[in-house]
Specification:
The chain is α/β, with parallel strands linked by helices. Helices cover 38% and strands 16% of the residues. The chain has helices at residues 13-24, 37-40, 47-55, 66-72, 88-91, 95-113, 151-155, 186-205, 231-241, 260-271, 291-301, 327-332, 341-353, 362-371; strands spanning 4-8, 28-33, 57-60, 78-81, 121-127, 136-138, 142-144, 171-172, 209-214, 216-218, 245-247, 254-255, 257-259, 279-283, 289-290, 308-310.
Length: 376
C-alpha cells in the first residue's frame, strides 16, 4: 500500500512542488488549501493549483475548518503543514488574520492529530523569521543576538544592529538552530508559536515531529502577483512592467536565498528520515546575498531600463541580516543544497519570462505600509 501524505497549503509555491515530487515517488498525495486570492488570484486559477490538480486530491477549504480537517486526515500516514499567511510587512497591520490562520489553524490541526493513530510523521514549515536578527559576533562579548534595531539608528541611516551588551559593532555569522529566538515581526512570532506547538505536541502524542526553518525560498512557481512576499518575484514583476524599484535602507541588507528544488529535497528528506529524528532544522543555502545585488542581477537579466533607487526608507519589523548554519540538516537529514544562487536565478528568470506580465501591486503595497506607519 502506498503511503498517503496530507499537505496543508499544498497548492502554494512550495507545497505544489512537494506534491509533484512526492507523486513521482509513488506517494498518494492529498492537498488541503484555501486558494487565497492574494496568492492564487480571484478565481483560484493559479499555475501551482493546476499542477496539484494533476497529481493529488485537492480539498478546497480553510485549515481552521475542523470538520474538513477530520475528513482530510482519514487514512493519512504523514502530515506536511505549510498552510500559513506569509509576509513580514503585512503581518504588522493584519495582526488578527495572521495570528488566527497561523496559530489557531495549527492548533486545530494538532487537536485532531492527538487521536490519529495512523499518522507516523508530522512536518511543519517554520521560518528564519523566528530568529529575528540572528547570530552575530562581538570582539568584546563573543556570540550575541541583537534585538530589534533602534528607530533612532534607522532614522539616522545607521542600519546595522549593535551589540546588545556593549553597543559596539558586530560581525555577521551563520545562525544555528540553538540560537536565541526573538522575532521582530508578527509573522515571525506566529511562526515561532507554530513551531513550538508542533514540536511539543509531537513529543506528547509520540509522533516524530520536525520543523523546517526555511530561509528565503525562490524559484519557478512563486507567485508573481503577491506584492507582500518574495522579493525576487516582486522585483521581477516590477522590472517587467517598467516601474522603478525602490530598495529599503542602503541595499546592503542580506538574506539567505534557497532554491525551491533544494527545499523540496529537504522536505522529502525530513519525511523519509528515521523516526528517531525530530526537532528543528535550518533549510537554506548557507550563503548571504545582499538585496542590491539581487536587484542589479535581475535588472540586467530582464534588460530593464527602469531605475533601482536606494531610498533610505526602512520597514518596521524588517531585519538587517540572517543566513543559516545548515550543518544539522546535513548530518541528520543527509541533505545539502545543490543549486547555486546564480544558477537558480537564471532558472527563475527563464521561467518568469515565460509567464504573462500580471498586475503590479508593488506601489499599492508600499502605500499600505506608509498609511499605517510601517514604512518610514
Amino acid at each position: 500500500m502506498r503511503s498517503r501524505v496530507l499537505i496543508t497549503g499544498g497548492a502554494g509555491f512550495i507545497g505544489s512542488s512537494v506534491a509533484v515530487a512526492l507523486a513521482k515517488r509513488n506517494y498518494e498525495v492529498r492537498v488541503l488549501d484555501s486558494l487565497s486570492p492574494q496568492i492564487h488570484g480571484p478565481d483560484g486559477d493559479s499555475p501551482t493549483r493546476h499542477a496539484v490538480d494533476q497529481v493529488a486530491e485537492l480539498i478546497h477549504a480553510d485549515v481552521r475548518n475542523a470538520d474538513v480537517l477530520t475528513a482530510a486526515l482519514k487514512g493519512v500516514n504523514a502530515v506536511i503543514h505549510l498552510a500559513a499567511e506569509t509576509g513580514t510587512g503585512q503581518s504588522m497591520y493584519e495582526v488578527g488574520r495572521y495570528t488566527d490562520v497561523n496559530i489557531m489553524g495549527t492548533a486545530k490541526l494538532l487537536e485532531l492529530l492527538s487521536s490519529c493513530s495512523c499518522v507516523e510523521r508530522i512536518i511543519i514549515a517554520s521560518s528564519r523569521a523566528i530568529y529575528g536578527e540572528g547570530k552575530y559576533a562581538c570582539d568584546k562579548d563573543g556570540a550575541v543576538y541583537p534585538h530589534q534595531r533602534r528607530i533612532s539608528d534607522l532614522q539616522a541611516g545607521f542600519f546595522d544592529p549593535r551589540c546588545p551588551l556593549c553597543n559596539g559593532p558586530l560581525q555577521l555569522v551563520p545562525t544555528d538552530e540553538d540560537s536565541q529566538l526573538h522575532p521582530t515581526s508578527i509573522y515571525g512570532i506566529t511562526k515561532q508559536t507554530q513551531e513550538q506547538l508542533w514540536l511539543l505536541c509531537g513529543a506528547a502524542f509520540d509522533i516524530p515531529a520536525i520543523a523546517l526553518r526555511y530561509q528565503n525560498v525562490y524559484g519557478p512557481g512563486q507567485s508573481l502577483a503577491n506584492p507582500y512576499t518574495g522579493i525576487l518575484s516582486i522585483f521581477s514583476t516590477r522590472f517587467r512592467s517598467g516601474g522603478d524599484v525602490n530598495i529599503f535602507e542602503d541595499g546592503k541588507e542580506s538574506r539567505d536565498f534557497v532554491y525551491v528544488d533544494d527545499v523540496v529535497a529537504a522536505t522529502i528528506a525530513a519525511l523519509e528520515s528515521p523516526p528517531t529524528v525530530s526537532g528543528a532544522f535550518n533549510i537554506g543555502s548557507g550563503q548571504p546575498v545582499d538585496v542590491l545585488t539581487v536587484a542589479s542581477l535581475l535588472k540586467h537579466d530582464f534588460d530593464a531600463n527602469c531605475k533601482v533607487n536606494m531610498t533610505g526608507n526602512y520597514r518596521i519589523g524588517d531585519i538587517r541580516h540572517n543566513y543559516a548554519d545548515i550543518r544539522r540538516a546535513s548530518e541528520l537529514l543527509d541533505w545539502k543544497p545543490v543549486v547555486k544562487f546564480h544558477d537558480g536565478l537564471a532558472r527563475f528568470v527563464s521561467w518568469v519570462k515565460s509567464q504573462q506580465i500580471g498586475t503590479d501591486g508593488y506601489e499599492h503595497a508600499l502605500d499600505e505600509l506608509r498609511s499605517r506607519g510601517m514604512l518610514r
